[in-house]
Fold this protein.
Amino acid sequence: MLLDVLQGADAGTFIIFLDTANFSGRCLLKSYINTALKREDVVNVLEFEVSEEELRDGLDTQCGRRMHFHGGFADPLGWMKRSSFNVHQFISQDLSTLLTQTQQSRSAVLVIDSLSWLLRHLDPVVVCQRLQELKRGGAVKTIIGLLHSDLHQTSVVGSVCHLASTVISLAPWTKGPWALAKTTKRTKSGKVLQEEELFSVQEDLTITVHSKVSHAVPTQAEPDSEADPTANLTFNLHLSEMEREAKEKVALPFVFSQEKKSALLNPGQGAGRILYEPDENDDFDQEDPDEDLDV
């Protein structure tokens, strides 16, 4: 999936390279720039962290005329008025003017190096609104941003990544000389695709994917049929011989003995009769038995 993302993108695509201090994503960012130039896309770069010379190093020099740098490295905050573009101009119409000036018949790609500079000096809500406007405005085909996740709160990183159609999280691979890329891609239908791959960046900025990372699910061991489930309890469930004999001698409630069962099943003569002996104070009239019910 990593190579598919680098080799082509649909209109309105927003890709974020999410890195940390343990592994820089700038090599992957430059690889995408090189691929876009070979596709004959027009690339506009907002550089705030590194100079234009460092970003151009290793790129295809024959495609340099389609690459436009809007310098912010020398004076990213615009304090000395030495840069053609600064952080605060990102949320103004100056960015749209720059993109319009370099607009050609070919597709345009906007590269932001890095989004962390914008988020540290501007309101994250405003930055997200501006990114959303660029996605929908049609001024650029693709937005590529480098974001240092360990410089921001988790909520800020999550808000920016929520706008992206593809997020590539980068980390070093401890078991070999490669790096790990976890790609999360949202399709237009709303489906989310995820894949983890081991890759390396060659000297000519080409990407080589070595293998996909599979997470094996540990199988549960079958229970031992001879194991005693009460072995590790803090109390004893076993009875001694004396306790078992005493338990068997206890008469349980509502359990009839054999003699009582026989008496109930074979009743003798007169069983089941109700005998009533009237009290001497009873006033019973044989002619009117319901006298006491009269009102």
User: Anything to note?
Assistant: The longest helix spans residues 124-137. The CA atoms of residues 79 and 204 lie 37 Å apart. The chain has nine helices and nine strands. The radius of gyration is 42 Å.
